[in-house]
Amino acid sequence: MYETQRKLRFTLTALSLGLAMTAGAVMAQADEASATVAPISAELAPLAHTQLLTGVARAGEQLVAVGIRGHILRSADGERWEQVVAPVNSLLTAVTFIDAQQGWAVGHDAVVLHTADGGRTWALQHFQPDLNKALLDVLFLDAQHGFAVGAYGLLLETRDGGKQWTQVEGEIVEEQLHFNALTRLGDGSLLLIGEEGMMARSEDQGQHWQRLQSPIGSSQFAVLAEGERGALIAGLRGNVYRTADVQSGNWTRVDTGDVQSVFGLTALPGGDVAMAGLNASLLRLDRDSKVQRLSLDAPAAGTADSVKSSDSGQELGAFSDAIAWKNALVVVGESGVRTVSIKR
Fold first, then answer.
1. pTM exceeding the 0.85 threshold for the entire prediction
2. Which of 117, 152, 239, 325 satisfies CB 3.0 to 4.6 Å to 176 for a cystine?
3. Which of 67, 133, 138, 100 has its CA nearest to residue 317?
4. What is the rounded distance in angstroms from the CA atom of residue 124 to the CA atom of residue 127?
5. H-state helical runs in 124-277
6. Angle of CA points 119, 124, 128, to nearest 5°
7. Rounded CA gap, 189 and 223, in Å?
8. Which residues does residue 340 pair with via DSSP β-bridges, in sequence order?
9. Contact 208, 233 (CB under 8 A)
10. What are the residues whose beta carbons fall under 8 Å from the beta carbon of 303, sequence distance 6 or more?
11. Phi, psi at residue 310, to the nearest 5°?
12. Could you tell me which of 221, 218, 223, 244 has the C-alpha nearest to residue 233?
């Protein structure tokens, strides 16, 4: 049975380290009947945009965010959000789109959802509560070939757009470490990061995985590709590292001046990176690894509602993901959606 969890997309790892963060109780009971349990549709909630949201992605000229109780929301401006019907009420942890129409979301109960209309409607592709494993990230290489990764070494693959998902076997999953994030590097190879410094790379689109030397032995929660073979990784207690070649094992520690765990990385216009994390931590990292704290009371251009100066990190809770959007940064987390200016 899942423990009662207060969590974002990183929850299973965070719980094991005593980092209870968010206010959403998620329970799952593994028994003989679990394989026949039918999913329950998410309820529409008027204040869904103020509740726990764990991931956000761009679908053409729309934003799509996912979160607690199967909530899925769409927005055309990052300010006004509309919840859409979802076929599950499981906590959703990540969302991705390969174009303006095709997207996937994953979450607890090994859930995978698919949309073919930019997030307006969603269909259930995978639901396996008897596994007692959450999916924490999803990556598609094209409209057919994709991966979903998660707790205790769960690695699913599809080669038909999600009609069939199969569990990947092999050495990479035998340790049953949590897989927290997956990305494609500039050279087309795949980089997987997770618990206890777990790091692996695939040069053949996931057919084989090679464990890599990690710069740190603690959990990594977010990864962002940089250049042809480089990457930026971030995780527990504000540990951030950067390399020009993940295969080389030569990583440089980024001194952020902050010990708040980082859960989301997103590229900004001009080559900077935004880092979102615990206790409403929101930092801007430039290409020279200089760090600037983003002000939460700075209104974003063209928005009617900005983060109030009275909001404290404690009140806002954790930030889990962010995305650059029309001269602003749209941030999601424990308190829902926030918009922050990124103009210098």
1. yes
2. 152
3. 67
4. 7
5. 171-174
6. 140
7. 14
8. 329
9. no
10. 77, 78, 79, 328, 339
11. -80, -15
12. 223
Instruction: Look up residue 7 and give its DSSP letter.
Output: -
Contact 195, 219 (CB under 8 A): yes
pLDDT tens, position by position, 204-247: 999 999 999 999 999 999 999 999 999 999 999 999 999 999 99
d(CA 277, CA 258): 10
What's the one-letter identity of residue 149? Answer: V
* Cβ–Cβ under 8 Å, residues 337 and 53: yes
What are the backbone dihedrals phi and psi of residue 89, each rounded to the nearest 5 degrees, phi first? -110, 20
Q: Is 110 helix (H, G, I), strand (E, B) or coil?
A: helix
Token pair 């980089």: residue: 191
Query: What pLDDT was estimated at residue 306?
Result: 36
